[in-house]
């Protein structure tokens, strides 16, 4: 089991340079978990692609449904006290500390491309395309 940042989900479902890395991660680690906020973030990413004309509505909806299926029953709420403690002790936003909280409480790694998370929490945060 691994925790994933919403950007990793986007790389998996929206074709781009990081898609092969996200696909390889899914093959290697097929049990992905995320914080419950991932849905709002993913919808926001998809809306940007739709507004720019990069993907059609039907494709965006299909990607969302596939992501929801991947993470079905694998969504976790963040612990507010722990999130605020992580914020206090790092340079990260509360949003980002929610990701770290979930990974820590599940005793797993968080896969992300977020540079601040990677720098602030090197024992928990792992770069998507790490060996």
Structure description:
The chain has 7 helices and 5 strands; from the N terminus they run E-H-H-E-H-H-E-H-H-E-H-E. Strands 3-2-1-4-5 form a 5-stranded parallel β-sheet. The protein has 131 residues and is an alpha/beta fold. It has helices at residues 6-13, 19-28, 38-51, 57-70, 80-88, 94-105, 115-120, and strands at 2-4, 32-35, 75-76, 110-112, 125-127. Strand 4, helix 7 and strand 5 form a beta-alpha-beta unit. The protein is 56% helix and 11% strand. The radius of gyration is 14 Å and the shape is globular. The protein starts with a strand and ends with a strand.
The residue ranges in which pLDDT falls below 50 over 5 or more consecutive positions are: none
H-E string: EHHEHHEHHEHE
Count of helical segments? 7
Q: Over the alpha carbons, how many angstroms does the gyration radius reach?
A: 14 Å
Largest sheet: 5 strands, parallel
> What portion of the residues fall into strands of 2 or more residues?
5-15%
How are the strands of the largest sheet arranged? 3-2-1-4-5
Structural class: alpha/beta
CA distance, first residue to last residue: 17 Å
Report the principal-axis shape.
globular
Q: How many individual β-strands?
A: 5
Helix content: 55-70%
Q: Mean of the pLDDT scores?
A: 96
What's the helix and strand layout?
Layout: E1 2-4, H1 6-13, H2 19-28, E2 32-35, H3 38-51, H4 57-70, E3 75-76, H5 80-88, H6 94-105, E4 110-112, H7 115-120, E5 125-127
Parallel strand pairs: 1-2, 1-4, 2-3, 4-5
Helix pairs in contact: 1-2, 1-3, 3-4, 5-6
């Amino acid at each position: 089991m691994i925790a994933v940042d919403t950007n990793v989900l986007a790389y998996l479902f929206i074709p781009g340079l990081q898609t092969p890395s996200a696909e390889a991660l899914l093959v290697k680690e097929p049990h992905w978990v995320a914080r419950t906020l991932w849905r709002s973030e993913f919808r926001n990413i998809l809306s940007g692609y739709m507004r720019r004309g990069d993907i059609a509505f039907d494709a965006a909806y299909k990607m969302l449904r596939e992501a929801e299926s991947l993470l079905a029953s694998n969504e976790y709420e963040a612990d507010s006290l722990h999130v605020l403690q992580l914020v206090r002790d790092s340079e990260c936003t509360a949003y980002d500390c929610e990701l770290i909280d979930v990974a820590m409480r599940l005793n797993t790694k968080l896969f992300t491309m977020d540079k601040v998370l990677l720098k602030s929490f090197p024992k928990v945060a792992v770069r998507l395309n790490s060996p």
